[in-house]
């Protein structure tokens, strides 16, 4: 069942793209943002600025109209002269993704820079992100059938990014957006926000050795244990974050959901406890427990050098669907306005 949701009830994680920052934008930076109807010039076209979609500490996302044909797009911008360089990595990943023609990675249309103000990239407009969408339903969760199918699509997108040579390091529901107009027959998602990505192979194609110590990267609620231990993240760690995200889509919350994003140590302790029999039972309540226990055990057994077996993970989710009576052509929650 759909429920009305006030924007203030949505966590910050749902309302802004991560690399834009979780804190309020400082006043000097606000002055550099474009105003409505302001024209920005990219490498290929000009765009009229429309409504603001999201804002963070170092930038914002706007809807824009391409001047030549009036077609709507989204522009993600980052204020110049900040210590954030997330948009630069966005460009690197999106450029390579475009060359590889990846179906589940956001598509970049254009880029540009307004001197002394901001740099930006232009992308296709996308549907709601999965975090925003989840909060539209009673219990802040999807039905099992919808959640499992969304998780399968997210798994495909992560696999594509990994095959491109990058780890994401901030996998979470708000970084997956629906393909506009998709239905149960053609369900699709886009993976977005690549500001924290890192190439995991060197120029010779070998896996880069881990650094001795790295700063925390990610979002506290979904961060893998490696991030809490300040260890180098690998492909395995994106899968751990994907697993937490999948559990949350089914149950509506995680045992550590009530913690503030700065309570990283407390979140780490609770994630460690989730590996005990009692903790695993609590984490996996309302999920297909047997299959999900196997998924968690498999992910935890992976090493820094491991390449995840995406086929196995896909099989476990499909087995969950079969054992729970879920079908690929079940109506999606937002199609039938009912979840339970």
Essential attributes:
340 residues, Phosphorylase Kinase, domain 1, EC 2.7.11.1, 35% helix, non-specific serine/threonine protein kinase, two-stranded antiparallel ribbon, 6-stranded antiparallel sheet, alpha+beta, 2 domains, Transferase(Phosphotransferase), domain 1
Strand and helix layout:
Elements: H1 12-15, H2 27-30, E1 39-41, E2 46-55, E3 59-66, E4 72-79, H3 86-100, E5 108-114, E6 118-123, H4 130-134, H5 144-164, E7 166-167, E8 176-178, E9 189-191, E10 198-199, H6 225-228, H7 235-251, H8 264-273, H9 277-283, H10 289-301, H11 310-323, H12 333-336
Antiparallel strand pairs: 1-2, 2-3, 3-4, 4-6, 5-6, 7-10, 8-9
Helix pairs in contact: 5-7, 5-11, 7-10, 10-11
Task: Provide a compact summary of the structure.
It contains twelve helices and ten strands. With 340 residues, it is an alpha+beta fold. It has two domains: 117 residues, Phosphorylase Kinase, domain 1; 207 residues, Transferase(Phosphotransferase), domain 1, CATH 1.10.510.10.
Q: Can you walk me through this structure?
A:
The chain is an alpha+beta fold and 340 residues long. The protein folds into 2 domains: 7-123, 2-Layer Sandwich (Phosphorylase Kinase, domain 1); 130-336, Orthogonal Bundle (Transferase(Phosphotransferase), domain 1). 35% of the residues lie in helices and 15% in strands. The protein is built from 12 helices and 10 strands. The chain has a 6-stranded antiparallel beta sheet, covered by helices on one side. Helix 5 packs antiparallel against helix 11. The chain is globular, with a radius of gyration of 20 Å. Mean pLDDT is 91; it is low at 16-22.
């Amino acid at each position: 069942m759909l429920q009305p949701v006030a924007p203030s009830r949505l966590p910050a994680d749902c309302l802004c793209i991560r690399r834009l920052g979780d804190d309020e934008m400082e006043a000097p930076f606000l002055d550099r943002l474009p105003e409505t109807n302001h024209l920005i010039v990219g490498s290929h076209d000009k765009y009229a600025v429309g409504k603001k979609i999201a804002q963070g500490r170092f930038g914002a996302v706007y809807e824009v109209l391409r001047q030549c044909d009036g077609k709507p797009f989204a522009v993600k911008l980052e204020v110049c002269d900040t210590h954030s360089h997330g948009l630069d990595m966005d460009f690197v990943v999106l450029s390579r993704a475009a060359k590889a023609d990846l179906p589940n990675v956001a598509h970049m249309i254009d880029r540009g820079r307004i001197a002394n103000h901001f740099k930006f990239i232009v992308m296709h407009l996308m549907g709601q992100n999965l975090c925003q969408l989840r909060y539209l339903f009673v219990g802040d969760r999807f039905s099992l059938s919808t959640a499992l199918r969304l998780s399968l699509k997210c798994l495909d997108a992560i696999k594509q990014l990994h095959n491109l040579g990058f780890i994401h390091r901030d996998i979470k529901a708000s970084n997956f957006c629906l393909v506009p107009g998709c239905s149960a027959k053609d369900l699709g998602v886009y993976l977005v926000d690549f500001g924290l990505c890192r190439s995991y192979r060197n120029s010779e194609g070998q896996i880069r050795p881990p650094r001795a110590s790295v700063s925390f990267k990610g979002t506290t609620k979904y961060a893998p244990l490696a991030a809490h231990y300040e260890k180098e993240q690998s492909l395995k760690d994106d899968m751990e974050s994907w697993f937490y995200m999948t559990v949350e889509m089914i149950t509506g919350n995680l045992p550590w959901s009530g913690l503030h994003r700065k309570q990283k140590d407390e979140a780490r302790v609770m994630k460690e406890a989730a590996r005990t029999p009692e903790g695993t039972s609590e984490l996996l309540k309302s999920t297909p427990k047997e299959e999900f226990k196997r998924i968690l055990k498999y992910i935890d057994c992976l090493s820094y050098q491991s390449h995840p077996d995406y086929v196995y993970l896909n099989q476990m989710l499909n087995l969950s669907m079969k054992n729970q009576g879920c079908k690929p052509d079940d109506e999606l929650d937002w199609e039938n306005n009912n979840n339970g």
